[in-house]
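User: Here's a structure from my thesis project, written as structure tokens. My advisor, Dr. K., wants to see whether a designed sequence matches the one we expressed. Can you design one independently, without my sequence as a hint?
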């Protein structure tokens, strides 16, 4: 098979072909490595494990020939964001501070991927220490968007989003604090799931803001994310914040459709202050779901307007606590933007942080009340499409320029603050051909419902199947 034939299938399709011995893990790894080399200009990867991946692929092939299959990811190349530990391999968190950091043990999520048969092909680039939404990394290169390499891919898991979009792996892990899985999923045209807080272990992951951090899957389809999430989810005694819940089969309900499900729009919020192409695409997605049998309903979250301020407070104070010693001993090793954010976090008062936490509790109660009237909530993932590399402001409407960091948190902050699960699903393109994502927000531990709605939408649309120009060919 050609590289395109090997790489353009979904994770679930590829895993089935590997299990049937119709596709070789070695062929997949070799094709993925060639694709990684061909997209070098995107700076999507910090480290590529070519020799290790090929050795594991050969072992995977031998096991299949002997009738053994480790799990649903057996023989499938997967990439990890470079703040997730891989035993003995450099884990930089996109920073100069950890440039020579070689963990002695795998992160729990890395162990679980390996146990399911995944082949770790490399570590992806990110916004330094995951503290930013653009993946403009001064140490390992700005990650660029494969739909237009003059534009940003979102962050902080920008490399993972690009890796999936360019078919250089079949799935990737990202981390999400304020939107870092969902933002690059939307801007790169892939599917990304932020789990309920505590559903996936953070053990072995470099933290950003521990009360909002989580690991989650990024892949081409909701079905792919469901398979990956089933491997990742479950209690981990090594993580004090891990929820005491066992894993489950997240593929079970994917074919149930959306007939009778209620999709909530938050009044004055869900479609407010967004670029025109974004509103059009999200309204189109809602119309498709309505045609499939879902019912769109209006809901209210009275105090939602405070969410950006609260998120900025928490996401400043908690990282500054973690970085306090390095910030004093090695300030020049940080990029300017991240150092300024960390320094600003140290200026916050304890009262400001505590008020933000009180607000989070209020917002969670109000959002759960809204979810009592709807099965999921819907809004754009971002209010705008990908901006030019290096931009620190964005224009959403009325010619007004606003701060990039606040703007990207407009919709992703709600699940982050409340600890609720959310998924970003490709739902259209703007006039420049740049992807747009719709965000669905669910009840606690109701990831199966989000994946079900996303799968139903993807059965009647093809946005998730389209290739970026960088790899689409003539």
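Assistant: Designed independently from the structure alone:
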């Amino acid at each position: 098979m050609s590289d395109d034939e090997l790489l353009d299938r979904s994770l679930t399709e590829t895993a089935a072909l590997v299990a049937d011995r119709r596709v070789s893990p070695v062929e997949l790894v070799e094709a993925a490595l060639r694709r990684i080399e061909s997209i070098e200009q995107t700076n999507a990867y910090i480290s590529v494990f070519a020799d290790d991946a090929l050795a594991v692929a050969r072992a995977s092939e031998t096991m299949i020939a002997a009738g053994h299959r480790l799990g649903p990811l057996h023989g499938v190349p997967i990439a990890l964001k470079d703040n997730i530990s891989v035993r003995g391999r450099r884990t930089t968190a996109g920073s100069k501070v950890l440039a020579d950091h070689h963990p002695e043990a795998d992160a729990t999520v890395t162990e679980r991927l390996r146990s399911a048969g995944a082949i770790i092909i490399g570590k992806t680039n990110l916004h330094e220490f995951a503290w930013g939404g653009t993946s403009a990394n001064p140490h390992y290169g700005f990650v660029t968007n494969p739909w237009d390499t003059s534009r940003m891919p979102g962050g902080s898991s920008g490399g993972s989003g690009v890796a999936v979009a360019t078919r250089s792996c079949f799935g990737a892990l990202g981390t999400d604090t304020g939107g870092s899985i969902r933002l690059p999923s939307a801007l790169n045209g892939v599917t990304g799931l932020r789990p309920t807080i505590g559903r996936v272990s953070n053990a072995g992951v470099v933290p950003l803001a521990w009360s909002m951090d989580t690991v989650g899957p990024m892949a081409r389809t909701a079905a792919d994310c469901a398979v990956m999430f089933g491997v990742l989810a479950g209690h981990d005694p090594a993580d004090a914040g891990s929820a005491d819940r066992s894993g489950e089969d997240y593929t079970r309900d994917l074919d149930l459709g959306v007939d009778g499900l209620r999709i909530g729009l938050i009044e004055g919020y869900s479609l407010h202050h967004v670029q025109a192409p974004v509103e059009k695409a999200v309204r189109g997605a809602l119309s498709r779901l309505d045609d499939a049998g879902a019912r769109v309903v209006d809901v209210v979250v009275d105090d939602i307007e405070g969410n950006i301020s609260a998120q900025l407070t928490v996401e400043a104070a908690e990282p500054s606590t973690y970085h306090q010693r390095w910030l004093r001993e090695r300030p020049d090793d940080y990029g300017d933007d991240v150092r300024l954010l960390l320094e600003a976090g140290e200026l916050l008062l304890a009262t400001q942080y505590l008020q933000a936490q009180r607000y989070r509790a209020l917002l969670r109660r109000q959002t759960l009340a809204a979810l009592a009237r709807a099965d999921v909530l819907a809004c754009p993932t971002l209010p705008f499409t990908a901006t030019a590399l290096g931009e620190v402001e964005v224009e959403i409407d009325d010619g007004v320029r606003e701060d990039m960091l606040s703007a990207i948190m407009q919709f992703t902050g709600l699940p982050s603050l409340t600890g609720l699960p959310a998924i970003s699903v490709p739902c259209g393109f703007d006039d420049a051909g740049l992807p747009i994502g719709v965000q669905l927000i669910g009840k606690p531990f109701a990831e199966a419902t989000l994946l079900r709605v996303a799968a139903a939408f993807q059965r009647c649309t093809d946005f998730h199947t389209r290739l970026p120009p960088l790899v689409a060919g003539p």
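When you compare it with your expressed construct, this may help: The two ends are 19 Å apart (CA to CA).
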